[in-house]
Amino acid sequence: xxxxxxxxxxxxxxxxxxxxxxxxxxxxxxxxxxxxxxxxxxxxxxxxxxxxxxxxxxxxxxxxxxxxxxxxxxxxxxxxxxxxxxxxxxxxxxxxxxxxxxxxxxxxxxxxxxxxxxxxxxxxxxxxxxxxxxxxxxxxxxxxxxxxxxxxxxxxxxxxxxxxxxxxxxxxxxxxxxxxxxx
Length: 183
Description:
The protein has helices at residues 2-46, 54-71, 104-115, 123-130, 142-157; strands at residues 78-79, 84-87, 92-95, 98-100, 164-167, 171-174. The chain is of the alpha+beta class. A hairpin with a 4-residue loop joins strand 1 and strand 2.
């Protein structure tokens, strides 16, 4: 009799585990769909790239860097409504006229974000820009460190203003907003 009760209880527990597993899988599927919908919405709103494979991302970074070099475009003297100024000769940046010290790598991160302003810059693009040779490239997470340190310096110098925006699962963007007109 006790054995029958235990068997019945075991069947009940296995059934609950199975239902829980199905609910978890359904929740995971819904979460993936939500991420895809968010990515599509970001794509539509800000023109960020669609989801890319590693090979596509490498090709996109190469194309962006090549087009920037081929265009011979220069970094604008001011960005973000005139608040952020870049002196390419001295490799110095100023926020609201005040110079701030940044490292060479932080400058090069800002340089690519400024050249690609209002467009998403991926981790692969930054790695390719910072480390020209593939055998020189460190772990990709170093980009997060450079972005974090650069953001902190920019934020401190601008009384909390955020210049660099993270686009989840895509990269970063430097929004270059026009200065408000006085007219």
